[in-house]
Description:
The structure is a homodimer. In chain A, 32% of the residues lie in helices and 33% in strands. By secondary structure, chain A is of the alpha+beta class. Chain A has a four-stranded antiparallel beta sheet, covered by helices on one side. The model of chain A has no long low-confidence stretch (mean pLDDT 91).
Amino acid sequence: xxxxxxxxxxxxxxxxxxxxxxxxxxxxxxxxxxxxxxxxxxxxxxxxxxxxxxxxxxxxxxxxxxxxxxxxxxxxxxxxxxxxxxx
Amino acid sequence: xxxxxxxxxxxxxxxxxxxxxxxxxxxxxxxxxxxxxxxxxxxxxxxxxxxxxxxxxxxxxxxxxxxxxxxxxxxxxxxxxxxxxxx
Lengths: 87, 87
């Protein structure tokens, strides 16, 4: 499946979220990550994110769809992290 | 079509982008908007965003897909702006 993860995390926890996601999928912008993952990776990632964040204060939205090619990506302005670059 | 718009805009222009998008689609988190729009609205929005931003310094990614129900949304933590609320 393909996921886009966007988050709004309190400053004291944001780096932990960022580092964890960088190990697993691609950073594309500010607080946005995306990537192709397996269902078991999806379970692992959501479980870990729940452990890191404070669910009363932070917010993460995971958009998931079966295949990346269902979606089209239009970039306006600079491309922060070219999708094809492994970070 | 359904779009998710994420942006990373310099502080001097970010409110202009935010206000413009609020008039057209739904704010869901920090710098994330989403909504169902027509192809002509899509053209209008991308044209206007290009006018507002500095394409050398700012970055906007528009993810678009034919239908909202191709996508599943998983919210972890707080829901900043409930999708069903018209802002």
